[in-house]
Amino acid sequence: MIDQIPKTEKQRAEALAKIEEGYFKLGDLYYFQLDEKENASQSYTKLLDRFPRSEFEPEVLYKLYLIERDK
Fold first, then answer.
1. Quick one: how far is CA 33 from the chain centroid?
2. pLDDT at 9
3. Which pLDDT score, from 0 to 100, does residue 1 have?
4. Cβ distance 50 to 23 under 8 Å?
5. Count of CB atoms within 10 A of residue 17's CB?
6. Rounded CA separation 32/5 (Å)
7. Residues 54, 48 contacting (CB under 8 angstroms)
8. In Å, what is the CA distance from 46 to each residue of 6, 26, 43?
9. Quick check: 71 pLDDT over 90?
10. Distance in angstroms between the alpha carbons of the first and the last residue of the chain
11. What's the pLDDT tens digit per position in 15-45?
């Protein structure tokens, strides 16, 4: 287990990129496949809170808009 902990800056960046993508994919899973818009909204919001300069920001903001519009 200890060997899996990122030690270099490159490894840390890769781990954070995987977490960022994970929040995005989780939000999409909730939104598109499970039709759980509240959980999708929470995942997308966590992504934007934790990664304010995310490459996914434009798409996430649009999806959050669609979720709010449908309420």
1. 16
2. 96
3. 85
4. yes
5. 12
6. 33
7. yes
8. 22, 11, 5
9. no
10. 44
11. 999 999 999 999 999 999 999 999 999 999 9
